Amino acid sequence: MIILPKIPIPIIYKPMKHTYGLYYPNEIYIKEGLSEHQRIFTILHEIGHYMCDILSCFCWGNHNECEAHANLFALRWLLEYRAKDILKKVWYSSKPLVRNTKTYHQCKKYIKTKEMQLLLFN
């Protein structure tokens, strides 16, 4: 079982049409009806945005960098908790959650690291 990070802002589930999640400084919105792996990855991704915001990360204000950091935060958290099934579904599904081209290439480099390969294929 994966343990999600504790954050001091609420996570709110609601119907959304064009996105799986949204981060605002005082709350995170997650689309209702997502599969387990989509929901967990999306929550972690939005928490990644939260972390970049509170840490005043250099990526804040650059959409591609911000998305890459949020995705890498989610991937690293999943790796830390050895969430092999979720990682495989996020990365290898027919509708991957990592869609942006620049983000995809940055995450692909991370996926190819030795520790990630050991987790995914052992």
What do these coordinates show?
- The chain has 122 residues and is mainly alpha-helical.
- The protein has a single domain (11-121), classed as Arc Repressor Mutant, subunit A, CATH 1.10.10.
- The chain contains five helices and three strands, in the order E-E-E-H-H-H-H-H.
- Strand 2 (21-24) and strand 3 form a beta hairpin.
- 29% of the residues are buried.
Mean pLDDT: 77
- Tell me the series of helices and strands, N- to C-terminal: EEEHHHHH
Query: What's the main sheet like?
Result: 3 strands, mixed
What is the strand content?
Answer: 5-15%
What is the share of helical residues? 40-55%
Order of strands in the sheet with the most strands?
A: 1-3-2
**Principal-axes shape call:** globular
Radius of gyration: 14 Å
In whole angstroms, the N-to-C terminal distance is 18 Å
SS-derived structural category: mainly alpha
Q: pLDDT under 50 segments (min length 5)?
A: none
Domains, number: 1
CATH class: Mainly Alpha
- Oligomeric grouping of the chains: single chain
CATH architecture, by name, is: Orthogonal Bundle
Number of strands: 3
Q: Which fold name corresponds to the CATH topology?
A: Arc Repressor Mutant, subunit A
Number of helices: 5
